[in-house]
Fold each of these.
Amino acid sequence: MRPRLDVWFTEEHAPGLRFSMRVTHELVRRRSDYQEIAVLETQEFGKVLILDGYLMVTEKDEFIYHEMIVHVPLAVHPDIRRVLVIGGGDGGAVRELVRYDTIEEIDLVDIDPDVIDVCEAWLPQLAEKLRDPRVTIHFADGVRFMRQVSRPYDLIIIDSTDPFGPGEGLFTREFYGSCHAGLTEDGILINQHESLFYDEYRVAMRRVHDRLGRLFPVARVYQAHIPTYPSGHWLFGFSSKRYDPLLDLDAEGWLARGIRTNYYNPELHRGAFALPNYIRRELEGDRQARLK
Amino acid sequence: MRPRLDVWFTEEHAPGLRFSMRVTHELVRRRSDYQEIAVLETQEFGKVLILDGYLMVTEKDEFIYHEMIVHVPLAVHPDIRRVLVIGGGDGGAVRELVRYDTIEEIDLVDIDPDVIDVCEAWLPQLAEKLRDPRVTIHFADGVRFMRQVSRPYDLIIIDSTDPFGPGEGLFTREFYGSCHAGLTEDGILINQHESLFYDEYRVAMRRVHDRLGRLFPVARVYQAHIPTYPSGHWLFGFSSKRYDPLLDLDAEGWLARGIRTNYYNPELHRGAFALPNYIRRELEGDRQARLK
C-alpha cells in the first residue's frame, strides 16, 4: 500500500498549520486560462481536485459538502424547478440536484472549461451527471452572468472557491444583489461560507453574513463536518425571500422522496443550524448581548 | 511572528494523513512512569499537551471538548452532586464542573501524577481548578479504582486517551460494567468515543457502542467539531440509567444558571445528537434497514 516514492501534498490551513496527504499518483496537472488544475491520487482520500494549490474536493468526503448545499434547500422549498449553480464545475452539486425529478432545469456557470474537462476525465464520481439533459453548462464569469439573468431561479447555489483568485467576485455586495434580483419571489440562495475557526476568513465571512442579512429577510448560517477543509467545521449561508430553513422544513416530504444520502437527514438538517456560541457571537457581532 | 528555526510537530491522523503545527518553543518534555509527556508552544494553537506523541489538548480548541463532556449531562440530570472523572489529569473537565455550585464532590482519577504536575506548571488555563476544595485527586489506575467504588456517583466522565497505551483498559466491557455498578440509579456515564471517519478506530468504537447499549437503557452518541482531533468530527457516548439526553434536557434551567460558554448551548445540545447517516449506519450495524 505505502509507495516507496514518498510524495506529499500539503495545504497550509492556517499560518503554522499544515494538512498533508500522501500522494500515490499525480494524475494530471494543467494550467488553464484561469488557474492551475491538478488531480492527485492519494492514499487516504482517493482522488483529490486541487485548484491553484488549494484542495477543492476529495472522493472520500465530497459527499458531505455536496449533500449539504443541495438537500438543505430542497427539503425546505416545496417547488424548486429552476436551479442555478455558480462554480461547481466538478459536477458534485449537479449530481445531487438531478436526483430530484421535480427539478426541470439546471444552469451551471463555471468560468473555466478546463475544470469540467478534467473532472469528466478523472473524477467521474463527481462529474457523471453533467450531461444530464436538464443541465446547461455556461462557460462564463459568474458575476457577469448574474447581471443578465432574465428568467429568475427558485434556487441559486454559489459553489465557489475561496474569496480570492478567480472566485473573488462571488463574495461581493454587487454579486449578492444580482443573486437576489435573479431569484423568484420565494427563492433561496445557498453560499459556501468558509470556516470561522482560523483568523484568515473570519472578518470576510462576517461581512458576507451582514451583506446577505441586509438583502434577505431570512439569512441563516448552517454547518457541516468536512474533514479535509480547514478546521473541519464548514459553514454555509441559507438566504431566503420567504422560507425559513427550520419552520418550513418538510421532513416527511423529503423522506418520502426516498433519496438515499450518506450525510444528510432531516434531523441533522435541524441540528446543522444550531451553531456553537463562538460562531454565533462572531456572526452577530454587536448583537452579542442577545445571545443566550 | 514566524521563527527562523522552523520546527514542526506532526501527528499522523490516518495512514497517509499528517496534521502538523509549527512549534515556537518546546516547554517541557518528560518521561513519566507511564508515558512521554510534552508541552509545546505553537504558533496557531497556543500551548499543546502531547502524550506519547499524540496531541491531547490545545489551548485554542480545548474548550470545545471540555464543554461538551460536562455541560451535556449537567443540562439533562437535575441533581448531580457527586462526579467522578477518569483520566482528565489536565484539569479541563474539572474546570467546567466546578462552575456548578450544586456539585458537592468531584473525584479525579488519573494514573499519572506527572501529567497533573506538568499541567499545573504549564497549562494553568486547564488545571486552575484542580485545587478546588470539592476536588479529590486519586493517583490510580481507573480500572482498579472502579472495582472498589463504594458510594455511587451521579455522573462518571471517562476522559480517556486513545484505546491503546495506558488508557486501553478504559474501553473494555469489564470497565464499563464497573462504571454501571458505580453509578446511582439515575446516573449518567459520558465517554469520549473517538471519530468514525478514518478506519483506525471504527470497529473498536462500534464495539464500545454495542457494549454500552447492552448495559444501559439509554445509550446515545453525540458529536462536536474539534479542529485538532482526527477528522475534526469527534464523538462522545451518553449512557444513562434513566434520563434521555433530549427528552429530559432542561434548556431553561440550564440557561438560568448563567454559565457563559464558548461552544455549548442548549440548541446545539439537541443538534449534537443528530448524527450524519454514515455514522448512524456504522453505529447501528445491521439495524441499518431501520434508518430513515
Note: Chain A touches chain B through 48 residues (CB under 8 Å).
Amino acid sequence: MSAKSPLAVPFPAMPAIAGVTPRIARAHYKEWDRCDLTFVELTEGTTVAGVTTRNVCCSTEVELCRENVKGGRARALVVNAGNSNAFTGFRGREAVDAITSQVAAHLGCPHSEVFVSSTGVIGVPLPKDKAQAGLHAVFNAEPCSWEDATNTIGTTDTFAKGAVASAMVDGKRVELVGIIKGSGMIAPDMATMLGYIFTDAAIEPAFLQQLLSEANRKTFNCITVDSDTSTSDTILAFATGKAENAPLHSFDDAGADAFAAALHDVCRQLAHLVVRDGEGAQKFIEIEVTGAVSDDSAHRIGLAIANSPLVKTAIAGEDANWGRVVMAVGKAGEPADRDKLAIRFADKWVAQAGLAADSYDEAPVAEHLKGQEIRIGVDIGLGSGTATIWTCDLTHGYISINADYRS
Amino acid sequence: MSAKSPLAVPFPAMPAIAGVTPRIARAHYKEWDRCDLTFVELTEGTTVAGVTTRNVCCSTEVELCRENVKGGRARALVVNAGNSNAFTGFRGREAVDAITSQVAAHLGCPHSEVFVSSTGVIGVPLPKDKAQAGLHAVFNAEPCSWEDATNTIGTTDTFAKGAVASAMVDGKRVELVGIIKGSGMIAPDMATMLGYIFTDAAIEPAFLQQLLSEANRKTFNCITVDSDTSTSDTILAFATGKAENAPLHSFDDAGADAFAAALHDVCRQLAHLVVRDGEGAQKFIEIEVTGAVSDDSAHRIGLAIANSPLVKTAIAGEDANWGRVVMAVGKAGEPADRDKLAIRFADKWVAQAGLAADSYDEAPVAEHLKGQEIRIGVDIGLGSGTATIWTCDLTHGYISINADYRS
C-alpha cells in the first residue's frame, strides 16, 4: 500500500451477516506478500442484484455478472486482486469458466450462482493454475473478518473501506454491511470499483435490483476521480434472508422504505470512501448544482466541473479561482445563461448575476479552501434541476501514482 | 515566461503582409514588465472570417467577434493580455465598447470593423483607463515584428508560436502568416487559443469563412491539452487583398485549392504548436483512429483517449500501458467491439482481436515511448471512419502550473 490518504477514515465496526462467510487466501496473482483471493460463501436462497460498468470494453467477469444477476440467486462471490483479466479474449473467458466450475462443484450449486470479479492490470489473462490452487486453499481457510476481506479485494487502495447500516423491517432488525475497493479510474457510471453489500434481510431480487439501481444513480454515479471508467466496475448486493422478515417485494411492504434508506446510506458511504481514496487526493470536494433545467442537466454540469483538471488543480492549490468553475459550466454543453449564473464556496457567494459578487470577501473563502472538505455551489438560474457530485482535487500524487503503475 | 517547453520549436522567418501593420505597447493590465497590448491595423477593404469557442459562458469580446464577422470587413484587431474580461457582466461590456470607440475614432472606421480579444484571468473587469492609455501609446508606436506581436498576445505561453505558408493564386504569390497564443484550458471546439491569420490574398469573406471553418474542424478542433474549453477562444483570419489576385469566391476559382491548402497548413501548424506548449507537456502525442463507424465517431473516440488522464500519465511515464487505451475506447460512448479492437504504438501492434498481439515485443515500443513524438493507433474494426487527434502527456508540470496560477 502507498501512504494512507489524508482523507482516510477508520474501518468501522461491522457485524457478521448471518448466511455470509468470507475467507481469503494467497493465489500469488502478483509478486506480492499479501492475500489476493477472496471467497464469500452465501447461504442457500440468497438473492442478488447488481450494477456494472457501461464501458463497452468490459471484462468477461462483468459480462458474467450481468448474465447471472438475471437469475436473482447467488451462492458464492470470488474476487481476484492484481489482475483484472480484462481484454484477454478467449484466454480470459477460460479462466473465469474454470473458476466458476471449481466453485460450483465445491458448493454443489449451479454455475449461474457463482459471481466472479477481477481487478488489476488490464490485458494479461488470469493464470488458471494460480486461481485453481488459490481456490483450493481458500475453501479450506478459516472465515476472516470484513476488514481482512476488504484489504484482500484492494489493489492501489490506501485504506480499507467499509460501511454499515441497519433497518427495522417487519419487526426484525436487519443488518447491512458494504465493502469496496477503488481509487483511480473512477468515473460516473461506476468506477474502478468493486463493491459488495451483504444483508441478512429477505428481499425479492427484482425489488433489490430496483433499490440498488436507484441508490446507484444518486451515489456511485455521482462520484468521479479522473473521469476514466474502468472495464471491470461492479457493485453487487446479496441478501441472505436470515433475518427472517417477511420478504420485501415492493414499497408497499412494511419496512421497505427503511431498508431502501439503509441501502442508500451504505452506497453513499461507500461512494464517498472511494473519493476519499482518490489517487493523490488531498481534498474531498462536494459540488451542488441547483437551478438547472433538469436533474439530468444538473448532473452533467456537476460532472463537467468535477472532471475539469483546471478546477481540480485550483482546489489543490487552495485558490478561489471561480472563473474556472464558470468555464466548466460553460463547456458542459447544457443550457446555461452566463448572466444568471451564481457561484459559491461553502456558503459564501463569490459571483452572482454574471459577475463577481459585490459582497465578495476572499478571506473566509480562502480559509474554507484550506480545509479538507470543500463545498462548491453553482446556481444556474434557469429551472429547478439539482444534483450533487463528489470528487477530489488533482495533485502531484495522482501523477506520481499513474505515471508509474504497471511498469 | 516559465521554462521553455521541451517541445518548443523556433519562431519561423515570417514575411510582412502588405496591408497589415502590427504594433505593441504596455497597458499594464498586470504587474509585469512586458508589453501586453497588441494593435494590428488592417488596410481598407480587408475581409475577415472567424471561429469562436462554444463555451456558453463566453466573453463579451467573443460575442462581439461573432457579430462583427457577419459584416465580413475588418480595419483593426486589438488583443489585451493578462485579463480575459470574461464573466465581468456590464463592466466588461463597457470596457470593450470604450476600446472599440477609441479605435474606430482613430481610424475613422465603423465600430463593426474593430475586433477585440482579451486573455488572462476570468472575472476581473478590464480596466478602462489602462486600455485607453495603452491604446493612446500603441497608436504612436513603431510597427513591430511578428515575433514581438506574438510574445505580446501570450500569457502562460513558454515560446512564441508562428506559422507561415504561401500559395499561387491567379498568377500571384500570396503569403499567409499565423500567430497564436495558448497552452492550457485547451480543448476541442477551440481552446484558450487566440489565433490570428493574416494574408495578402483577395478573398470574399463568405468563402474565407468556409475555408476557415473547414480547416478548423480538422485542426484546432482536433487538439486537446486538458479537456477544458476557454471562455475566450477565437481564431480570426484577415485578408487584405494587397496581392491583387482576382478575388476568390469559390473552389471554382483558379488557385482556390492552393489557397485552401495553405490556410489548412497554417491552421495545422498553429494547432500543433499549441499542443507543443501544453502546460507541463513533455511529449507530443498523435492519436490516429481508424475503422470507426463514422468520422465523427472516430473523432469522439480519439478525444476520449486524448483526454484520459490515465492514458496521458502512462505516456508521461513512458509506460506501454495499452490497457488504458482499451479503457478509454470503451468509455467513449461510441460503437466499439472489444473483440475486434486493435491498438498500436508507432507501427507496432500491441493488441489485436481483443487480446495482446502474439507478435508483441515490448522493446521497440518502450524505445518509441522514450521519444518526444508518440504515435498511438487504434483500429475499431467496425467501419471506415477515421480521425487524427493531437494532445500531450499529463505531468507534474501541469499540476505545478495550474495549482498556483491566479493567487
Note: The longest helix of chain A spans residues 256-276.
